[in-house]
């Protein structure tokens, strides 16, 4: 933006953006065009073809962009705005992140003090924030709070909460698999298809988070490859 560029080409060691990590999914295919938002969501949820801040800059600036290979004359992947994009499929790509731990935090709760659990949630969030621990996929309930952290922070997070009189159950060795696609917004049955595809492989979904262009599922780390391939097939990426 500072240079007033009308277009930016980002060169990598692969021929553009793929529907999944080719090292993980043999059938991953190159994507001809992708929205800036989809590219940002892929980077945010684990794809390493482009640095997340660069994808965010493309989203915010509206500058035309292309992701292509340093070693090829092929055009690679064009990054377009939503105004110029008509998705042919519900989903565009699969992203994965491993090294995740889940914490289940029991909250003080009493029927005669219904606001108590909200206060305890706030305290738990503040304890994590003060230690610089980022939380993800958080699900508040009446008597407990469930959220994920980077596995490297799991023990410290658990200890901090325990020191402040919270009961904590820690589950390590988890991963997040994310279906990305601007075409899924408002389309019924996408989550059902995700659940059915994983159930067919005997994979338990521990937690779900979604946005207008993503559905993320938290699963056991041992199931990452199977889950990613199952979703890639189910959505014909």
Task: Describe what is shown at a glance.
This protein has 237 residues and is α+β, with helices and mostly antiparallel strands. The chain has helices at residues 36-44, 52-61, 116-130, 154-163, 190-200, 224-234, and strands spanning 7-12, 33-35, 64-69, 77-80, 93-106, 136-140, 144-150, 167-180, 207-210, 214-220.
Describe what you observe in this structure.
With 237 residues, the chain is an alpha+beta fold. It has three domains: 7-86, Carbamate kinase (3-Layer(aba) Sandwich); 99-172, Alpha-Beta Plaits (2-Layer Sandwich); 174-234, Alpha-Beta Plaits, CATH 3.30.70. The chain contains six helices and ten strands. The chain has helices at 36-44, 52-61, 116-130, 154-163, 190-200, 224-234, and strands at 7-12, 33-35, 64-69, 77-80, 93-106, 136-140, 144-150, 167-180, 207-210, 214-220. It has a six-stranded antiparallel beta sheet with strand order 6-7-5-8-10-9. A hairpin with a 3-residue loop joins strand 9 and strand 10 (214-220). Helix 1 (36-44) packs antiparallel against helix 2 (52-61). It starts with 6 loop residues before the first strand and ends with a helix.
